[in-house]
User: What shape does this take?
Amino acid sequence: MRKISLSRFLIEEQREKNVISSELRLLIEVVARACKGISIAIGKGGLAGVLGSAGSDNIQGEVQKKLDVISNEILLEANEWGGHLAAMASEEMELPHPIPNRYPKGEYLLLFDPLDGSSNIDVNVSVGTIFSVLQCPEGVTPDEQAFLQPGVRQLCAGYAVYGPTTLLVLTLGDGVNVFTLDRELGSFVLTQENVRIPEDTREFAINASNARYWEAPVKRYVDEMLAGKDGPRGQDFNMRWVASMVADVHRILSRGGIFMYPIDSKTVAQGGKLRLMYEANPMAFIVEQAGGAATNGHERILDIQPQRLHQRVPVILGSKNEVARVTAFHTNTASAS
Ligand code: AHG
Ligand code: MN
Ligand code: MN
Assistant: This one.
């Protein structure tokens, strides 16, 4: 079988389809290399003493795990010196990270969730890295304001899943491709091209322990699925919740499904649980590029104009027809009240 490495794939995308520049190609290669570094650190686990808490909180008031901090540092260090970036922003840092003066600057903005699913690190369950790339508006200082662009403007988005295999899932806006880390070669190899999410599904993902806090449209939607064959849907549904968004989204990319982290009365003050800029937007871009849909219950996630770097947002994404159904429940409730 002909093996296409990530490098070759990117060169061909640039040369034949002209969908990326050399700088963007470099950026993706550097992020992929950083993900390899993170994968190695995670794989060592207790052998290298990388498990457990770092003893600090991040800007969101969440306890940082050692691997949250290590992954953030790996991504920062890898991306500082290549000359491809104007600035970076991360879940783990309050403010954007400028490129040090001693290095040349580029035209792109990189956002990341260095380690997604941190509650799963210490129990040896899949975690991941999520990233998003925007263009820095010309002549603009790459401060927080420069990052506040709607998701439709993303040039590239991706995630790595550190599971039984390490995968890199990537979109450049012309479909979604999956690369598997060949640990002997030390490189990512294309293993799935132009992935498509089935439009219909019988599988849903939601943290059901929040059920009593949900709003009526989500309650109704989930209740109808739970009623199975005997309810209005006339069929049984299955439920899965890994609690690492990357792993849940990757399952949906692989076999369909719907993922929901809706607004609820517990998180209403902060606008939801997941972060728009480095969780919802990149995942929404990937899911849409694979033929799925992503909304906040009312509007397309990619159309939301961000107000803050660490803004949170309700997320409903996955198989198109199911996302449309639960989104319609929200819209109908709004017009009825
Ligand atoms: P992070 O580890 O980057 O803070 O993100 C965790 C997120 C997401 O990965 C997952 O879907 C969700 O939190 C899980 O939330 P619950 O613990 O409430 O199930
Ligand atoms: Mn996360
Ligand atoms: Mn994280």
